[in-house]
Structures are given as structure tokens and as C-alpha cells.
Design brief:
The protein is α/β, with parallel strands linked by helices. Helix content is 43%, strand content 10%. The mean pLDDT is 84.
């Protein structure tokens, strides 16, 4: 009897309360990763602890409920030895774009929903701010891509586009300056557009492969969700917050520059009048 009592006392009490479990499940249903729960949403346990609870069934979830369940290795496709980029190579891309120094430089891709020839997503991702533009298009033809891109260019300031060598992007120069389009140098090398590819995974949280139906309203919701999703590379700010901050900094820089120019002209005028009055 004494042994059993002491044994119960020696067991560490679980920190997984009912309220904490509900909070984690709430954020899980919103497609947030454990890292974002802890770093941006105030869940007060370790990231590894949440994964431990998932793997051991403490949250009523299984490994299949993970945002990215592990898959087997895929067979790597082989490129033709005579392959040539459809336009300017990514290796000719300016250093400012490669180093992500300014907003407005986008990577472009197509996200297929099913293998059948039907609706798919045209996706553009800003290399610096990770701002996302998503449009539902009827198919992955170059005509559909260009038609959607024309409308996007009226709404967003795009300075350059980096694309792969798919036939759907061969005619981008019909609607966008050829000088600012860059194509991946190597076929089947999605890592050359890593920003784009990583954000496509966020889309898959809502529209997994095999999704047969979606609507422009649902796509707009996903776009808004991604643009408000905290990112580690942005110090856990969202792309929208980062863009707003960048715009404020730009306005402040312009104001400061204008103020200094005004003060300099004022100083020069005062110096001139002083000299003029002395001469008189």
C-alpha cells in the first residue's frame, strides 16, 4: 500500500492539459505547423514535445495527420543531353535578385490538382517577402497562363520572373519583358526555384493531390492564409507584415532624403543671403 502510494507520487504529472490540447488541435486544424504554434502563437511547450504527443497518440492524431507525411523515394527523371533553357538562363540573373535584396522578383509555377486535363493553379512567389499570388486557371496551356498573368500585372508590381522550362511558360515574353524573364538552367531541378516549391507545399495543406473541385473563392482564401502565415525566414512575421514594413521603411527613407535636401537648400540660401548682405 505504501509502495503504491509512493509510486503514484513519483510519476511526473503530464503538462498536457485539456485547454492546451484544445489549443494545439485548434491550430492544427488551421494547418499551422508545431514550430509556428510555439514561435508565433504562444503555445508554451517545446516543438519536439508536440511531435512526441502526435507520434504517441496523446492528441488523438496519427502520423498521417502530419502536415507532410513521409513518402517513399521517387525515381529521378533524366534530362535530355540536348536540353537548352527557353530563354535567359537563371545564371544570368542579377546579384540583387539572387540575394533577395528587394521585393518584386517572383518565381512562377503551376500546381496541378489532378492528372486529368482540367483546372490548375498559377502560382507566383516573391523571392524576398514570400508574398504569394495564386490564380485558378482552366488548364496549364501557355495561353491560359498568359491570360491570367496579364490581369496579375495590372494589380501587382512585378520586376522579374523566374520560371522552369515547361511549355506553359515558353510564351511569357508575349506579356512580360523578355529582358526580365529567367529560366532554370537544369531540367527537373526544382531547387532552382526553391521559394516557389516550398510554398506549393503550403497550398497542398488545403488542396492535396487529387482534389477534383475548387473555386476562386477557396483559392483566394488560401492565398490570404499564406500571406498571413508567419515565416521563420522573416523572423516569424507574415509576408503581409513584411511588405507593410518594407513600404513604411521606403516612405521613411524618401521623407528623410527629402528633408535633408530641403535643409541643405535652406542652408545654402541662408549662406548666400548672409554673403549678399555683407557685400552690400
Amino acid at each position: 500500500m505504501v509502495y503504491e502510494t509512493n509510486r503514484k507520487r513519483s510519476v511526473k504529472k503530464s503538462i498536457l492539459t485539456k485547454e492546451l490540447k484544445q489549443k494545439i488541435l485548434h491550430y492544427h486544424n488551421q494547418k499551422l505547423s508545431p514550430e509556428i504554434m510555439v514561435k508565433a502563437k504562444g503555445v508554451t511547450v517545446g516543438i519536439s514535445t508536440i511531435y512526441y504527443w502526435i507520434h504517441h497518440g496523446k492528441l488523438g492524431l496519427t502520423k498521417q495527420n502530419l502536415l507532410y507525411p513521409r513518402k517513399g523515394k521517387t525515381v529521378k527523371k533524366q534530362a535530355s543531353p540536348n536540353f537548352k533553357p527557353a530563354g535567359k538562363s537563371i545564371e544570368q540573373r542579377p546579384k540583387a535578385i539572387n540575394l533577395r535584396l528587394e521585393n518584386g522578383h517572383y518565381e512562377i509555377d503551376i500546381v496541378l490538382l489532378t492528372r486529368a486535363k482540367n483546372h490548375c493553379l498559377l502560382v507566383l512567389t516573391d523571392r524576398r517577402s514570400r508574398h504569394q499570388i495564386i490564380r485558378l486557371i482552366p488548364n496549364k496551356s501557355a495561353e491560359s497562363v498568359n491570360q491570367a498573368l496579364k490581369l496579375i500585372l495590372r494589380q501587382h508590381k512585378i520586376l522579374s520572373i523566374t520560371a522552369d522550362n515547361g511549355a506553359e511558360f515558353n510564351r511569357l515574353s508575349d506579356v512580360f519583358s523578355k529582358e526580365h524573364i529567367y529560366y532554370a538552367q537544369h531540367p527537373y531541378a526544382s531547387w532552382e526555384r526553391g521559394t516557389n516549391e516550398n510554398h506549393n507545399r503550403l497550398i497542398r495543406r488545403w488542396l492535396p493531390k487529387g482534389t477534383k473541385k475548387t473555386t476562386p473563392k477557396e483559392v483566394a482564401f488560401i492565398e490570404n492564409w499564406i500571406n498571413n502565415y508567419p515565416k521563420k525566414c522573416l523572423d516569424y512575421k507574415s509576408p503581409r507584415e513584411d511588405c507593410l514594413l518594407a513600404n513604411l521603411n521606403l516612405k521613411f527613407s524618401l521623407f528623410t532624403s527629402l528633408w535633408f535636401d530641403t535643409m541643405q537648400h535652406t542652408w545654402e540660401w541662408n549662406s548666400f543671403t548672409d554673403v549678399f548682405c555683407t557685400c552690400c
